[in-house]
Design goal:
It catalyses: Cd(2+)(in) + ATP + H2O = Cd(2+)(out) + ADP + phosphate + H(+). It is a multi-pass membrane protein. Belongs to the cation transport ATPase (P-type) (TC 3.A.3) family. Type IB subfamily. Pfam families: E1-E2_ATPase, HMA, Hydrolase. The chain is α+β, with helices and mostly antiparallel strands and about 775 residues long. The chain has 5 domains: about 5-80, Alpha-Beta Plaits (2-Layer Sandwich); about 85-155, Alpha-Beta Plaits (2-Layer Sandwich), CATH 3.30.70; about 165-275 and about 385-450 and about 725-780, no CATH class; about 300-365, Calcium-transporting ATPase, cytoplasmic transduction domain A, CATH 2.70.150; about 490-600, 3-Layer(aba) Sandwich (Calcium-transporting ATPase, cytoplasmic domain N), CATH 3.40.1110.10. Helix content is about 50%, strand content about 20%. The strands form 6 sheets. It has a 7-stranded mixed beta sheet with strand order 18-30-29-28-19-26-27, with helices on both faces. Strand 22 and strand 23 form a beta hairpin. The radius of gyration is 34 Å and the shape is elongated.
């Protein structure tokens, strides 16, 4: 008897390529002992059946093979696929290079599934297979990070630092720098003799840069070279070694002043971004009996009643039970026009109540509320880093050591090979090299740029789940739309009333309303809505519903027929068939054809603007996929100016169409699929970028898509692409500007045409300008 087969499920985090999924499936099937294997690309799940006696070793072999085939994929057991996550706060993190160092260290800790440091918000997100492993990792991190970076304190909860404390720290630094500058100036201006000048210069140097030297020393002991502390220490100590005392002090002074200004600029940037997402409610007013009490939103449960007064934020998702008011939805949707709510209206956390008092019954716990999910998405978006960010991190890692090696060669080789060359001259040039080699401008401004872009997008009602998706939007050349609920409103509406003979439009609509008065069908409801008057059903003498045909009634001595063309033919009513877009309801009164009413899904007012905007941005092809009839799809397509329309499609056929369009792309081009996020999950997952339309409050939309348009406006796709292009433009401005300035000063320094003064001023100046430039990303109202 053969060994009993065991079923094993693995989650392949990072699987975003259908061909990769097929490759993994084919190779795992070949492993000896694997009875069957299938990879679900949409759910990123691998299911395999193995011989139970060798189950663990086969699974291990499969994991090793997958890692070999696709090194970027992280493999989790299905049981622990959700894993455990925790955010810790890195108080004192003011250096982007230190952030990269911490991230690399935490990722190397045994048991860490993934770790990402967000320099902008000073957060470290740690993922582990389960809660027990996570707690051990957090304990280790709390001990090990301060050893790597002594200035960083690891906190499990976010504590706001008071302005007074920050101000005191800055005052202390300014006093220290002023004292050092004063001593240095005295030694430089007055002729006090070498025996007095040297000690004064040395004391001034230690007052200004003692903390930098201490940090550099601690890092050297740990074997961590080539950070900014090491570079500044070597450059300034070298300046002292060749007798350039004023320049050694000046370099350290300007570096510290630059760090101070950089810290102020970065903190202001962080504050600006934080204010964009200032939607978290501070409290909820809970009604218990006749009492009101203020509580944390986390303490409120489903079914509880909360009271929201004018000017207050709605703290949790719920249903209005009593009261009516106008609510400001701009914090979530980016829309400035208030929305009216009344008893029976759904409201979402993050809305601001403008005038009336609202009694709201809570429908979701705070952790599941809209505001909590949006905040979580935006704040954790930085864990999905853009290729440009990853490139700069790697670039900085190699750039600084290379410059240090070149500087060493510059100091040693020319005096040996060039006749008459002085070692002190070439050492000075090498020190200029070291000063300018700091990559701060790049590693600080680029994360700020992407984080600002995501923050600005969220303020416009666009949730982008990561800077990788924001950057990918720059390369979009194909946009594929679902029809219903995306380009159209997804609701039936009377679009045409066509009476025949001497019957008026009003009379024809009234006859139809009478006939449909007992029906709950969407078509019937659209006719009743269009009629808009109360119907006295007692006036209807007879009501017969003819299955598959329509309805026959008698009212006021008249026989009224309302239905499809089969009903007309069945009753022998002569009529002329006409080509229309939508569903036709034919009517006859007393055996005579009275006309028809057309009911159709309505195209959104915003859709045409969206298509025109996409074409203006250089999109190669706009395509619509729909399950509707061909003539309906083609009518919508021609109205909007779409390039291609595919109709009468089943869900799996939509995936096939997207895959065929995907095959037309060139190497770096991207394809977007825009759907409602509920019925289109497989296609959203298959596209390079999945965009959920009208996803506000929809769990399925937020889960399935890479980008969520929180309003119902297709034109927000154009806005998202413009924000992405603006972000990339500013990021690359910083990269090119920083590298060009550094390159010029490096060349001038090598030829002896630039001093340390130019080197440090250009380094500090470039960093500050890059940070200020990065903040322009937030000004989405200036999109061109």
């Amino acid at each position: 008897m053969g060994a009993k087969a065991a079923r094993k499920e693995l989650v392949l985090e990072g699987l975003d390529c259908a061909s990769c999924a097929a490759k993994i499936e084919n190779n795992v099937k070949r492993i000896n002992g694997v009875e069957a294997c299938s990879v679900n690309f949409v759910t990123k799940t691998l299911i395999m059946e193995t011989t139970s006696t060798k189950n663990e070793s086969i699974v291990d072999e499969a994991k090793q093979l997958i890692n070999k085939l696709e090194p970027d994929i992280r493999i989790n057991d299905k049981a622990n696929s959700s894993g455990a996550k925790q955010i810790v706060y890195l108080k004192g993190l003011d250096c982007a290079n230190c952030a990269a160092k911490v991230e690399k260290h935490v990722n190397s800790i045994d048991g860490v599934t993934a770790a990402s440091v967000d320099f902008v918000s000073k957060k470290l997100m740690i993922e582990a297979p389960n809660e027990n492993v996570l707690q051990k990792i957090v304990s280790e991190v709390s001990i090990s990070i301060p050893k790597i970076e002594p200035n960083i304190e690891v906190e499990l909860e976010q504590h706001s630092i008071s302005n007074e404390k920050e101000s005191f720290g800055m005052k202390k630094l300014i006093i220290r720098l002023s004292a050092g500058f004063l001593l240095g100036a005295i030694a430089l201006i007055f002729d006090l003799g070498v025996s007095v000048e040297l000690p004064l210069f040395l004391i001034a140097y230690l007052i200004i840069g003692g903390d930098i030297l201490l940090r550099a020393g601690k890092n050297i002991v740990r074997g961590q070279l080539f950070d900014e502390n090491f570079l500044m220490s070597i450059a300034t100590i070298g300046a002292f070694a060749i007798g350039q005392y004023p320049e050694g002090i000046a370099v350290m002074l300007f570096y510290q002043v630059g760090e101070l200004f950089q810290s102020i600029a970065v903190n202001r940037s962080r504050k600006s971004i934080s204010e964009l997402m200032d939607i978290r409610p501070e409290y909820a007013t809970l009604k218990v009996g006749n009492e009101m009490k203020k509580v944390s939103p986390e303490e409120v449960h489903v079914g509880d009643l909360i009271i929201v007064k004018p000017g207050e934020k709605i703290p949790l998702d719920g249903m209005v039970i009593e009261g009516n008011s106008m609510v400001d939805t701009s914090a979530l949707t980016g829309e400035s026009v208030p929305r009216e709510v009344e008893a029976g209206s759904e409201v979402l956390s993050g809305f601001v109540n403008s005038n009336g008092v609202l009694s709201i019954q809570v429908t979701k716990e705070y952790s599941e509320s809209t505001v909590a999910k949006i905040l979580d998405l935006v704040q954790n978006a930085s864990s999905r880093k853009a290729p440009t960010e990853n490139f700069i991190t790697k670039f900085a890692r190699y750039y600084t050591p290379v410059v240090v090696i070149i500087a060493a060669m510059l100091a040693i080789i020319p005096p040996l090979v060039i006749e008459g060359a002085l070692f002190s001259d070439w050492l000075y040039r090498a020190l200029v090299f070291l000063v300018i080699s700091c990559p701060c401008a790049l590693v600080v401004s680029i994360p700020l740029g992407f984080f600002g872009g995501i923050g600005g997008a969220s303020r416009s009602g666009i949730l982008v789940k990561g800077s990788n998706y924001l950057e990918a939007l720059n390369n979009v050349k194909y946009v594929v739309f679902d029809k219903t609920g995306t380009l159209t409103k997804g609701v039936f509406k009377v679009t045409d009333i066509s009476p025949k003979g001497d019957i008026t439009k009003e009379s024809l609509l009234e006859y139809a309303a009478l006939a449909e008065s007992y029906s709950n069908h969407p078509i019937a409801q659209s006719i009743l809505t269009a009629y808009g008057k109360e119907i006295n059903k007692e006036e209807i003498d007879q009501y017969d519903e003819i299955a598959g045909h329509g309805i026959k009634i008698k009212e006021g001595g008249k026989t009224i027929l309302a239905g499809n063309k089969k009903l007309m033919k069945k009753e022998g009513i002569a009529f002329k068939e006409e080509e229309v877009i939508g569903t036709m309801v034919h009517l006859a009164v007393n055996g005579k054809y009275a006309g028809f009413i057309v009911i159709a899904d309505v195209v959104k007012e915003d859709s045409k603007k969206a298509i025109e905007g996409l074409k203006a941005l250089g999109i190669k092809k706009t395509v619509m996929l729909t399950g509707d009839a061909k003539r309906v799809g083609e009518k919508v397509g021609s109205t909007l100016g779409l390039d291609e329309v595919y109709a009468e499609l089943l869900p799996h056929e939509k995936v096939e169409k997207v895959e065929r369009l995907d095959s037309y792309k060139q190497k770096n081009e991207k394809l977007i699929f825009v759907g409602d996020g509920i019925n289109d999950t497989p296609v959203l997952a298959r596209a390079d970028i999945g965009i959920a339309m009208g996803g506000l409050g929809s769990d399925a939309a937020i889960e399935a898509a890479d980008v969520v348009i929180m309003t119902d406006e297709p034109s927000k796709i154009v806005t998202a692409i413009k924000i992405a292009k603006r972000t990339r433009r500013i990021v690359w401005q910083n990269i090119i500007f920083s590298l060009c300035i550094k390159g010029v000063v490096l060349i001038l320094g090598a030829y002896g045409l630039a001093t340390m003064w130019e080197a440090i001023i250009s380094d500090v100046g470039v960093t500050l300008l890059a940070v200020l430039n990065a903040m322009r990303v937030l000004k989405v109202d200036r999109l061109s």
